[in-house]
Design goal:
The protein has 267 residues and is of the alpha+beta class. The chain has helices at residues 4-40, 91-99, 102-118, 155-166, 235-244, 250-264; strands at 82-83, 123-124, 130-138, 144-152, 180-188.
Length: 267
């Protein structure tokens, strides 16, 4: 080994030492600068923004708790409709009916029906209510000659009407002295109140009854029937009719208006 070898070795070690010292000094300077920078920087403050929600409105306390219907309570049934029997015709009404000859003894037919209904009692809403229509034949003496049921909506109402007819008191003779034949509807319901008829138009001629002019029985010669003209009363007959007309009461006018409304309605 020559003398140059230790010298080169020492020289290399010295270079390494200088490099290490320079590196340490540079690192130390960088760290000091960084620490001064951190010291001069303002601290960071984090603020959490929480939205404010409105408080829910609390229900107002009830001064009195609502009444509760018990489960076992049953609603009451509605009241049942009833209609008392009308009063029977008075002696004056029967006297008028026995002499009024117009419109197929109109007064006698009305009084007969009112007498029957008055003897049937109170009509109560329910299965026994109903309407029955009869074909009636009254003998000239006033006695019942024939009674036929044309139709009925209640067997109970028909039985009550027949029982009342069989128990009728003696009635006056018919106004014409002839058998009186007519059809009569007896309403045994709490919703029907038949008022007295109107007599003021009884002297007017009846409108002609429509009949098909082309009806044919298939055997006789075919002809076109001419409609019958309305029969007008002679002056003597008109004067006699006007003398029979009574003065219509307010009840009769109201009953007529009610019948017209039920038949035709508002127009």
């Amino acid at each position: 080994m020559t003398m140059r070898t230790p010298v080169k070795l020492l020289t290399g070690l010295g270079v390494l030492a200088l490099h290490a010292l320079a590196f340490w000094m540079a690192s130390h300077a960088a760290l000091s600068v960084q620490s001064r920078l951190f010291q001069k920087t303002s601290p960071v403050v984090l603020v959490a923004i929480v939205p404010t929600l409105p408080e829910p409105a609390l229900p107002k306390p009830l001064t009195q708790p609502p009444a509760q219907t018990p489960l076992t309570e049953v609603a009451p049934d509605p009241p049942v409709a009833t209609l008392a029997a009308p009063p029977p015709p008075t002696a004056e009404e029967w006297a008028f009916a026995a002499q009024y000859t117009q419109k197929n003894s109109k007064g006698y037919r009305y009084s007969w029906g009112q007498q029957v209904r008055s003897m049937m009692g109170t009509a109560v809403e329910g299965p026994q209510q109903g309407v029955v229509r009869f074909r009636v034949v009254i003998a000239p003496s006033g006695q019942l000659a024939q009674l036929d049921t044309l139709w009925s909506t209640s067997a109970a109402a028909e039985q009550l009407a027949r029982k009342a007819i069989q128990a009728l008191p003696p009635l006056p003779p018919t106004p014409t002295g002839q058998p009186l034949i007519f059809e009569k509807t007896i309403s045994f319901t709490p919703f029907a109140d038949d008022g007295p008829p109107i007599y003021k138009d009884d002297c007017l001629p009846d409108p002609p009854v429509f009949r098909n002019p082309f009806v044919w029985d298939g055997k006789s010669p075919q002809t076109v029937a001419t409609p019958a003209a309305a029969q007008k009363l002679t002056p003597e007959e008109l004067d006699a009719c006007l003398r029979q007309l009574p003065k219509d009461s307010i009840e009769a006018e109201a009953a007529q208006d009610k019948r017209e409304m039920q038949r035709w309605g508002w127009r």
